[in-house]
Predict the 3D structure of the following.
Amino acid sequence: MSNLLEVRNVVKKYGDYVALNEVSLNVPKGSIYGLLGPNGAGKTSLIRIINQITMPDSGEIILDGEKLQPKHVQTIGYLPEERGLYSTMKVGEQCLYLAQMKGLSKAEAKKQLDYWFDRLGIQGWWNKKIQELSKGMAQKIQFVVCVLHKPKLLILDEPFSGFDPVNANVIKDEILALKEQGSTIIFSTHRMESVEELCENIALIHKSNKLIEGKVSDVKRQFRTHSFEVGILTNNVEGLMYDITQKFTVSPASFKSLNDDLKLNIEIGNASPNELLHILTQRGQVTHFVEKIPSINDIFIQTVTENKKLNSNN
Amino acid sequence: MTFLSPLLFVAIAVFIGYLSSMKAETKYIAIHDETGLFASDFLKENKKGAEFNYLNLSEANVNALKDSITKENFDGLILIPKTENVNDLSGKIEFISNNSPSISFIENTQDVIASKITKINLEKLKLDTLAIQKAQSNVNIHLVKASGEESLKGLNEIKIGIGGAFGYLIMMFIIIYGNMVMRSVIEEKTNRIIEIIISSVKPFQLMIGKIIGTSLAGILQFMIWAIIGLGLMFAASAFFGVNVGPGTNIPPAMAQSMQQDFSGIVQMGLKEAWNLPIASILIGFVIYFIGGYFLYSSFYAAIGAAVDNQTDSQQFLLPIIMPLILSVYIGFFTVVNDPHGTVAVAFSMIPLTSPIVMLMRIPFGVPWWQIAISVSLLFATFFLVVWFAAKIYRVGILMYGKKPTWKELYKWLKY
């Protein structure tokens, strides 16, 4: 799969402060790409460079095989984290204006607006002023504005903040629909559950450096602990424990279960799961046997805290 | 507001015109003249509808008169003591009143007494006053330019008037609409919409667009004001019969002498107006108007980009307003005295002051090469400042919540 966006060794400094240190990213075409990182990691700096709001001090950015140029702003849609619209301007006029700045003709912009307003069920808002709308409603308008010109690359900075669950779901469905239509989406957020749900690829930026990048499944494989959650009904707990602790590391576990079973966390290391299963089945009835897959959230916290330890050791 | 403003303006003008056209209350001035020489001259001033009515009370007791002033029977009392020689009177004549008199009243009183003393002196010297009057002569110098065009005196006032009016117009426009540019930049920052816009267009484009857009809006607004204002002015003066033009509050004596000169001035003025370089004045106005406005509004835009709210902008606004005020002062004092002197020429070259100072010089005739240098300097500076402002803009628009210092602004230039 070819990459729509390649960021190569980008460095950005503000005075003495290094906001981005040799950051490289590859965003595959047609994917939803999660850009993760704690506050102040440099995500927004990177997004602003991709949007050509600021220039990198060194490094380059390749969009769709070409070096990033001013004309590319028309192929990028951007939903900034700091939302804002002209508060005294009418919704319709405002959307037309912003769409025309992205290179749409007035007629085309009108057509697209009708489509989106219809789709999101907000036809009646055309003549309202932004200040008359609630925050969530204004967010919807802002989302429409950034997708009107059918961007090849859509950059969404915390797209769900400010939405209630119903509207968040509406927007999520729209994002997935846009992906189906071929858009590539960069998705910057702290909300890990939406990353799990939507993203195929992620990158983790921390303290101006990229720490992790890859397919979600690859990253998870990289961070797997080879441990299993086990539930077992047995009469001979001591015998069972003796057998297992001979070979594996065991710790108590807690998960929901309908049975009054023994709950364990078992790290099997390089051994095969079958080996463990074999021992278990000899000693009782297995009710639960699941590999513990690290969540993105776990990976995020683990990486960031490990990095902190590293830094403090140095 | 665009349409209401001229209405308000005209309403105020009509109101002022109405107020100043109201007849002032007649004031009664008592004259106690121990010399007996001057009272009759004051009485000659008594006319119907005049502001002051003089009464000769030379026979009355001085203290009684002073009492009646405090009791407000009279508005004022002129006390002329007896001296051996009328020439000793100066400094001894008193005017007593409860309220301080107007300057024009005092001048008028002094004039009446002084001319009487002069007349007495002339008679004492046995000089024929008529002959002296005849002997006095007025000289009019005929001004001719080296290029051969004829020029008249009195013209200078017209030149100053035209140059000053245009210069003043430019200053007002810059202050009002420069502020508008700044406000709109600050508004976009506080709205946070700036990030969306700036991801679509370059800061330089956004700023140029904003300046041009605001100036076109401003010119349109100005024109609407001018047209509605003028129309209403005519309608109002026809309807109310009130003279709303200037000159309504000029003291009668001055107005009279003006009246005499006026027809002469009008004739001369009309003749002279044709000799003025009208084309170069108008073209100069348009060029300097655009150049000056662009230059200053790029400063305003940069300030808007650097600050977070209007109150923070004050510290940066002062250095911008100063050259504007300076150029108006230079225009009205230096240019008027010596339109082609070193100071006037220098300030008509400096880009920050040239739009106003040069405009005021143009009616006096400026060599074309000076205009060429001044205009190219102006526009060169404009582009330099826009470039500079776009730099500040690029960094400043995305900075929130911090009041920048001059030092920081310098740092931003290097980003």
